[in-house]
Structure formats: C-alpha cells, structure tokens
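New to this. Explain these tokens.
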Amino acid sequence: MALSLGLIVAAFFGCSPMPDLSEATAESAYEAGVAAMAAEDYLIAVEAFRRVTDTYPLSPEADDALLGLADAHRAVREYALAENEYLRLTQEYPESPLVPEARYKLGVTYYEQSLPASLDQTMTRRALSQLNSFLATYPASAFASDAEELVDELRARLAEKLFLSAELYLSLNDVDAAGVYFEQVVEDYPDTPWAPRALRTWERSLREAGETARADEVRGRLDELYPEEAGEPSPQDGGGSGS
C-alpha cells in the first residue's frame, strides 16, 4: 500500500536536508518527489524523481516522474535541463498520456526565456513554433487555451520587434526602409495592436516627408483594415514602448 505524502515527507525529509533514496521504490520515490514539489523543495524533488527515472525507467511512475523532474528544473530556471527532460518524455514514452502536457510545457520553457522586443527574439520564435505545433496536434487539449494566449503574446512581441526596427529607420530619416518594416508588421501580424499602430505611424512619417499621395494610400489601408481606428488622428508619439 502506498505511504501517505505526510509519511513520505517525515521519512525522507525529517532527518537530513537530503533524504537517502538509495533504497526507495519507484512508488515511494515518486511520492517523495510530489511532496517535495508541494513544499517547493525543488532540489529534493529533482533527486526523488531522478531516482525513479534512472532506476525504474519501466515502472508505471516513470513518465510521471520524468514530467516532475522537468517541472522541478523549470521551477528553478534550469531551462536547458528542463527542455531535455520534456523532450525525453516525448521520445522515450511516446504513448504516454503526458506527452501533450510535456509538449505544451516545452513551449512554456521557451516562452519563459523569451526576451523583451528590443532584444534578441530567438527564444520567442522557438516558443511560438513549439506552441503552434502543440496546438495543431492537440487542439482539444486542456492546455490549448493557455497556449493560445501565449501565442498571441509572442506574436505581438515579434510585431513590436519589427515596429521598433521601423522606428530606428525613421530616426535615421529613411522613410522607405521604415516602410518595409511597417509593411511586414501589417502583413505578418495583422491581428496584433501593432498593425494599426504601424499604419498610423507610417502615414504620419510619410506626411512629414511630404509624400502626401503615399500617406493617403496608407491611411486608406488603415481605414479599410481597421475601421475601428477610423477618425483617429495620426499619432504624434513615435515611441515603441507601449501597445
């Protein structure tokens, strides 16, 4: 019969900072890991779950322990280790019902390493790719709604990155180069707040450059694509710090 979590904690955690798991069964080691996670003692959780994954890889608890191991690493921002364990679960236990959760959490791991729009966006793109793949494969997953919210945020971040690049060219008085980036915002991320903002800022920059015909064309696109923006004046702020 499985020991209660309270007994597991008392047996493993009561005598020393690091429990002796050398004789632990797969079940008791796994329960020790669960208890440690609940207590936010991630170092012990890692050791307990690793006891299961290394010693009892064919046990019923093995895939659960591997997911727990990845979660524990992610909790302390050991992202490379977390990524490895999530991937191991999908590769070594492909029939496990935990695979969708592991794939979702792999995307979250990338998301948590995503940097602000002004910085490198490698992890943003990686997170977006992973989460989109997850959603395409498991659209009915319990994690789908959360994944969709993260996708929206990541896409907005990439749109902001392009917007900031456009603003950089505006600061150099290169309206044509800025327009390339504004165009990309609208084409690639039309459903983000940055798309109408790109058109408004683009219109304003063209008017300031005396290119009235092109400005009118951009304004027409703004009114057509984002009618809720109709009647709004061209923005007087050129900042890229908000959305």
